[in-house]
Amino acid sequence: MSPMEGVTITKKTDQNIVELQNALSVKNGETLTKTFIQYIKDNYDYASPSELFLGEKAAYDIDELVALMRCIKANPGYLTDGRADTVWPMFTRQSSYREDLLRLSTYFDGVKAHSADSYTARWYIDADNNVQYTYSTEGMYNVLCYLSDMEAEGLIYSDCYDLTNKTNFRSTLWGTDSSDAPSFGFITFDWQASSTADSLNSDVVVILPPVAKVNGVWQYFIDNGRAIKPDGWAISAAGCTDEKTLRRACALFDYFFTEEGSTLQNYGLPMNLEENGSYQGPDGTSYPKFNQWMVDTCNAVAKGDLSTFLRDWMGSLIPIGYQKDIGFEYQYTSERGFEAGCCSRVPPRPLQPTPARAPKGDNPNYYKMIPPVFSLTLRQKEMISETTAMEEDDVVEKMFNIVRYKTRNNPPQELRFRPIMRSIWHSSRRAISRTMLWPTSRPMQRCRPQTELCKLYSGQGLWNTELGGTYEKTFQRAADPFCAVYSGFHRNVSVCPGLYDGI
Q1: Which of 68, 206, 232, 326 qualifies as a FRET site for 17, CA 20 to 30 Å off?
Q2: Sign of the CA dihedral with 226 first, then 230, 231, and 235 last
């Protein structure tokens, strides 16, 4: 599933599929889909239209992904054999993961949102070696406008925004196919191991992310690495009033970095493991092996999501300081997950490339890791607040109010999104970083709007784009990113069974 080194895909014309769909006098499941199929035939040399999204030559961009999502939304009865009148094209696992939608920003002109897997990683280093706050940029505001158009079209699961809704949408939209009252979802951005669990849905497959012009270079890229996490240990001065107590507290900290403590955190109690058993990982390393009770119980109560099961039922994987072991994830990754190439057959590679391996681009600092959080002074916090005009604790809600303003008929008021331009953390300071394998999804490239700002009040919206002539996309492998996509509502065929066979 990894993109081949040096693969070149050429789009033959300057057509834009979203514009073609918009121009249809009648928009329904048949017309939207047939238009898309013809567009692929006219513009690419694929043996099958599904190759645009599947396999090592996948080269879809953000507009093409949106076009596919429109086809999905318009064909619920066909895709579900008449069992449902709605298929949600895109969703997050739960409402607390709603900021994952902002990660689509990478495919809207390479806009930075989160450079690490933590939502607090809202920082990047610009070309002038200054740290910038991603949520305060003009590019991010444009992304919110794009998402608002997708939301208005019903392409994003509406419950994803409501923090009071604690439902696991992935379990609902992927895990109820065979129930009497099924709900259906199409694509999400999530961890590969848990998303491809057979007990969740055996029709989930993994695909490459959209191709996008990131940092001025056409490439496959997911801006999502593993850095120092924002949570960990702390010792209360009030609770350690003498040296003996302090030493005992430090000894407890230290225990989780011993072999025994590390095994406890990553795998749980010894009763969870096969006695004298071991699991041979695809990287050639032997890891502690879970017993059958763990596997069966995880499948029953957590739909095969071992991470959630260990954290919520078994009391391990607690978000404190410890060294995470990939071995427990290997053990619950399905064969379909391994086939994606994220963790098997080949040595693991970071999904976020190091500066030395990454394609060159406009910003020499674009690929550099940066800590997700900073210990800022009161004055620095005041500077940020004064510059962005939005307080840290309500910035996310205000951003998603912009996303939802069309469906709520609540146009956003004037908001100031200006670059911080503060050298809070200079790029010469080395950020402590660690990369980790992770599946993931994300839509692709998008061509720039005719104007820099999304024209909220003129009605031009998201899809007024202009490609500007024939162009060739040379896709460079920056990493091995993946996205989990639901592929099998019906007949177990490619990305969206039936769409490529005609309606």
Answers
A1: 206
A2: positive
DSSP labels, 412-453: PPP-------B-SS-TTSPPPB-------------PPBSSSS
3-class DSSP state for residue 339? helix
Alpha helices (runs of H) in 303-415, residue ranges in sequence order: 306-309, 327-331, 335-339, 378-388, 395-403, 405-408
pLDDT tens string 9-64: 788 888 999 999 999 999 999 999 999 999 999 999 899 999 999 877 888 999 99
Give CA–CA dist 299/305, Å, rounded: 7
Nearest C-alpha neighbor of 203 from the set 500, 1, 502, 490? 490
Q: Where are the domains of the chain?
A: 8-122+134-225+351-361+435-501, 243-335
Identify which of 190, 463, 132 has the alpha carbon closest to the alpha carbon of residue 337: 190
467: nearest Cα among 213, 270, 160 = 213
pTM (two decimals): 0.75
Tokens of 433: 């970083």
Which residue, chain included where needed, has tokens 């709605």?
86
Distance (Å, whole) CA 358 – CA 439: 19
Record the tokens describing residue 226, joined without a space. Answer: 């593993």
pLDDT in tens, 423-446: 333 332 222 222 222 223 333 333
The residue among 287, 309, 350, 392 whose CA lies nearest residue 117 is 350
Phi, psi (rounded to 5 degrees) for 116? -130, 175
Place of tokens 């003498």: 242
Query: Running DSSP on this structure, what letter comes out for residue 251?
Result: H
